[in-house]
């Protein structure tokens, strides 16, 4: 058992390294693509022709595959918190390769997000693994989860159709919200597919069931949507901010979706519930700190490019005095 946990630990750490690096490689690819066409943040798809972006995609796929296999050898309470390592790796690489500075308050926000997410995961209830795809289908079609899916899709459509045109370029929660909401559904579908593959390899064929292919189509749709809006987020916002916010929202929503679908909350004691609430509050606080740091960076950049309002007023007043002086010199009365 210890040997299996060791394998899971190594795979989880390797997954974080690959995923954290993929954010940086993909953003460098997006920057190159933006120089030759329409930016991804404005609906362009030039990045599909950029080899560096594809290198980042391959790196992310390898990381996700390692993370998927890690769950086979080690429990979720060991594997999931290690995903926070990708935030640190992404922030460090962004500092050195993209010259994106993360201030002290940003670091505090990252730490708060990581601590809150770890608390949520550690105190999350232990799930019961289904024995067939049909059993998972019954869980996916129960009223509570159908309501969750309906609410999720309504929010996603509202973000895409209403909020993206208005504040998609200024509010990081729009793009990341879409990625995270769809990501939670992706995990539920991928888990069903993984169980189907595992059972099939053990001799219990699950490929012939239509539910398996429905889960596959749902997973494919969700993954494509995630990639599109994650690219927009990386192309528009600081990678050192995108990575932790995405991790926090994705982890939180995945835990909620899993709890509803697999009824993991039943049997929870008061201490565990209180700990999870504290974790959610910590995550929310960290997200707000990160958001405030991003707004300060944008304001500072605007001041450097356009000058502060005080400078503009000084320039205008100086210009007015000069103009008045010239008018006086060239007045016909003199």
Automatic annotation (TrEMBL):
Signal peptide: none
Major subcellular site: membrane
Molecular function per GO: magnesium ion transmembrane transporter activity
One GO cellular component term: plasma membrane
Compartments in which it is found: Cell membrane; Early endosome
Subunit organization: Homodimer.
Family: Belongs to the NIPA (TC 2.A.7) family.
Annotated function: Acts as a Mg(2+) transporter. Can also transport other divalent cations such as Fe(2+), Sr(2+), Ba(2+), Mn(2+) and Co(2+) but to a much less extent than Mg(2+).
Keyword Membrane attached: yes
One matching Pfam family: Mg_trans_NIPA
This protein's name: Probable magnesium transporter
Keywords: Cell membrane, Endosome, Ion transport, Magnesium, Membrane, Transmembrane, Transmembrane helix, Transport
Species whose genome carries this gene: Brassica napus
Keyword Transmembrane helix: yes
Transmembrane segments: 6-25, 52-73, 79-98, 105-125, 145-163, 172-193, 213-230, 237-261, 273-292
Membrane topology term: Multi-pass membrane protein
């Amino acid at each position: 058992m210890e040997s299996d946990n060791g394998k899971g630990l190594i795979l989880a750490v390797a997954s974080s390294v690959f995923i954290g690096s993929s954010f940086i490689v993909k953003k460098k690819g997006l920057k190159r693509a933006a120089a030759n066409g329409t930016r991804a943040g404005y609906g362009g798809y030039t990045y599909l022709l950029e080899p560096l972006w594809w290198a980042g995609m391959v790196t992310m796929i390898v990381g996700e595959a390692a993370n998927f296999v890690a769950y086979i050898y080690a429990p979720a309470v060991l594997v999931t918190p290690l995903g926070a390592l990708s935030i640190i790796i992404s922030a460090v690489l962004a500092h050195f390769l993209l010259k994106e500075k993360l201030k002290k308050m940003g670091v505090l926000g990252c730490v708060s997000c990581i601590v809150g997410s770890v608390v949520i995961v550690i105190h999350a209830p232990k799930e019961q693994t289904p024995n067939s795809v049909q059993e998972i289908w019954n869980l996916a079609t129960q009223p509570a989860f159908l309501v969750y899916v309906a609410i999720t899709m309504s929010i996603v459509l509202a973000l895409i159709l209403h909020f993206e045109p208005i504040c998609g370029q200024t509010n990081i929660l729009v793009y990341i919200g879409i990625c995270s909401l769809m990501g939670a559904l992706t995990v539920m579908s991928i888990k069903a597919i993984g169980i189907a593959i595992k059972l099939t390899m053990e001799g219990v064929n699950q490929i012939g069931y239509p539910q398996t292919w429905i889960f596959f189509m749902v997973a494919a749709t969700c993954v494509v949507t995630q990639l599109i809006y994650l690219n927009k987020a990386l192309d528009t916002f600081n990678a050192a901010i995108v990575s932790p916010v995405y991790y926090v929202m994705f982890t939180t929503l995945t835990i909620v979706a899993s709890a509803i679908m697999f009824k993991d909350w039943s049997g929870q004691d008061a201490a565990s519930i209180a700990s999870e609430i504290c974790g959610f509050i910590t995550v929310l606080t960290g997200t707000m700190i990160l958001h405030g740091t991003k707004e300060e960076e944008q304001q500072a950049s605007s001041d450097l490019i356009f000058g502060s309002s005080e400078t503009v007023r000084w320039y205008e007043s100086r210009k007015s005095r000069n103009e008045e002086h010239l008018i006086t010199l060239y007045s016909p009365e003199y």
